[in-house]
Specification:
Structural class: alpha/beta
Strand order of the largest sheet: 5-4-3-6-7-8-9
Largest sheet: 7 strands, parallel
Distance between the termini: 36 Å
Number of domains: 1
Shape: globular
CATH topology: Rossmann fold
Number of strands: 9
CATH superfamily: NAD(P)-binding Rossmann-like Domain
Number of helices: 9
Length: 251
């Protein structure tokens, strides 16, 4: 473990959607950097296993089940973390859902559900986290977007709208809170090896990879590396930025 501590102890980080894939990799990396991690997912079982894994490696982690579609639960999550730890330094909004479909067939419910989880919940978490970060005059808000929010994608107008909205939200937060020592940035993954991409037909994956300048899919750990940099003191002069970790997809 490397020490990532402020003057009065380890920094406290919330990571949502921490049970698998990119969120899990982020949690493990931040824990390895010495942060105290609050793992958040809808179900507590998977994150309890991860919390135990982090603890066995000498890190500090706790598991918190939270339905991010529940406004009251989101507010209570941040309040509880601040009550238990006396601080909140890093917020990584990684949790997200998809309800894909062409616009002519997409229901209002599927559009609203994706916007609610992928954008509204992020807004509420950032708003709740702003006060303790401002009090500490140090904070890192890192929202996990997607290249889809920059380029669009057929069959994902709800997801693309949420991720595009995330960029505007994050840049606005960066302007509002920068004077208090709080930065806000977006990490936008491209084609990454996750459970979602594993379910895709092999031929589709191969064709997609051929279009990438780096000719391979990204790894969750590579997203975690970008998050870890932005969460550190080394990233202190970066705010309102969208960092695409996409193998050159947007180039």
């Amino acid at each position: 473990m490397t020490a990532a501590r402020s003057m009065d102890g380890p920094r406290v980080a919330i990571v949502t959607g921490a049970s698998r894939g990119i969120g899990r990799a982020i949690a493990l990396r931040l824990a390895a950097d010495g942060h105290s991690i609050v793992l958040v997912a809808r179900s507590k079982d998977a994150i309890e296993t991860l919390a135990a894994e982090i603890g066995s490696g000498g890190g500090i982690a706790e598991a918190c089940a939270c339905d991010l579609a529940d406004d009251a639960a989101v507010d209570s999550l941040v309040e509880g973390v601040v009550e238990r730890h006396g601080r909140l330094d890093i917020l990584v909004n990684n949790a997200g859902i998809t309800r894909d479909g062409l616009i002519l067939r997409m229901s209002d419910e599927d559009f609203d559900l994706v916007l609610g989880t992928n954008l509204r919940a992020v807004f509420r978490l950032c708003r709740a986290a702003a006060r303790p970060m401002m009090r500490g005059r140090w904070g890192r808000m890192i929202n996990i977007g997607s290249v889809v929010g920059l380029m669009g994608n057929a069959g994902q107008c709800n997801y693309a709208a949420a991720k595009a909205g995330l960029i505007g939200l994050t840049r606005s937060i960066g302007k509002e809170l920068g004077g208090k020592g709080v930065t806000a940035n977006v990490v936008a993954p491209g084609f990454i090896e996750t459970d979602m991409t594993e379910a895709l037909p092999e031929q589709l994956v191969q064709e997609a990879v051929k279009q990438l300048p780096l000719r391979r899919m990204g790894r969750p750990e590579e997203i975690a590396d970008a998050v870890a940099f932005l969460a550190s003191d080394r990233g202190s002069y970066i705010t309102g930025h969208v960092l695409a970790v996409d193998g050159g997809m947007l180039s």
